[in-house]
Amino acid sequence: MAALLPRAKDFGLALPAPPTRPQRPSASTAFRGSFGLRCFALPAVASFLTSLRSQSRRRFSAPRRAVNTDAEYKIDLEGLVSLCKRRGFVFPSGEIYGGYNGFFDYGPLGAELKNNLKRMWWRKMVHCRDDVIGLDSSIVTTPSVHQASGHVDNFSDPMVDCTESKKRFRADQLMWAKVELEDGTSAGYVSMVEDGNVEVALKKAAKKLIKQKKIEGGFKELEIKDMTDATEEEVKLIPSPATGLPGSLTGARAFNLMFETYVGPYSDGASKSYLRPETAQGIFVNFKTVTYVMRQKIPFGIAQIGKAFRNEITPRQFLFRSREFEQMEIEYFIDPEADFKAIQEEWIMEMWNFLKAVGLKESLLDREVHEGEKLAHYARACTDIVFTYPFGTQELLGVAARGEYDLQQHAQASGESLEYQVPGQKRKFVPHVIEPSCGVDRLFLALLCSAYDEDEIDGEKRSLLRFHPCVAPITCAIFPLLKNKPPLVEKAKGLAAMLRSSGFNVLYDEAGTIGKRYRRMDEVGTPFCCTIDFDTLEDDTVTIRRRDDPLKVERKKREDIGAFLMKECQLPEQ
Ligand code: ATP
Question: Start and end of every Aminoacyl-transfer RNA synthetases class-II family profile domain (predicted)?
Answer without folding.
Answer: 202-469
